[in-house]
């Protein structure tokens, strides 16, 4: 079965880069996603990467995928206080459901 | 930007009571989903729904749960006899098609508290 693991907490100074890591077990994953959850809000899709890609950049966000090691990371450049949230890694192996990690709580300090 | 709307945002119910959680998916989407997140735990898949029937369900989705699309806009999750362990945040999601590349749009969730 699918299993997605993330570290639970990350504290970063405002203006620094944040790197959130994720590992997954299902080698048949087609797409991997990063979702953001702010307090009291739903799951907001931040970005996704197709499994045949190594990297995807979208403004301040950079996703790196190491398919051999089944490792996914999200880098947020110039982290702002508005980036404080829980970040979920998720995978989809085309069976119409997502498997989520437990979420990484990112705290941005001034 | 189109949204998935869930009501209520918070529901408190007594153990053993029936609850119905409501969702309005994005209007041109065809696939609908329910997920739940017990406090401090992972977001877990419950069920997917397409063409007026369940496509897939998880082990969590037992006989106490049911889903329905009663009209052209609503998608509901019913829990027949709630248990304390049903307390969780329930998220509805929809997608235009089933393929992963179309992405999933989630609602803001309904926090269910069973007392």
Structure description:
The complex is a heterodimer of chains A (110) and B (115). With 110 residues, chain A is mainly β. In chain A, 0% of the residues lie in helices and 56% in strands. Chain A is built from no helices and 11 strands. In chain A, the strands form 2 sheets. In chain A, strands 2, 4, 5, 9, 10 and 11 form a 6-stranded mixed beta sheet that branches. In chain A, strands 1-3-8-7-6 form a 5-stranded antiparallel beta sheet, with no helix packed on it. Chain B has 115 residues and is mostly beta strands. Chain B contains no helices and 11 strands. The radius of gyration of chain B is 13 Å and the shape is globular. Chain B starts with a strand and ends with a strand.
Brief digest:
The complex is a heterodimer of chains A (110) and B (115). By secondary structure, chain A is mainly β. Chain A is built from no helices and 11 strands.
Quantity of strands of chain A, as a count? 11
Secondary structure: number of strands of chain B: 11
Radius of gyration of chain B: 13 Å
| Share of residues in helices of chain B | under 10%
Tally of individual helices of chain B: 0
- Span between termini of chain A: 41 Å
By secondary-structure content and strand pairing, the structural class of chain A works out as mainly beta
Helix-residue proportion of chain A: under 10%
Largest sheet of chain A: 6 strands, mixed
Mean pLDDT of chain B: 92
* Shape, principal axes of CA atoms of chain B: globular
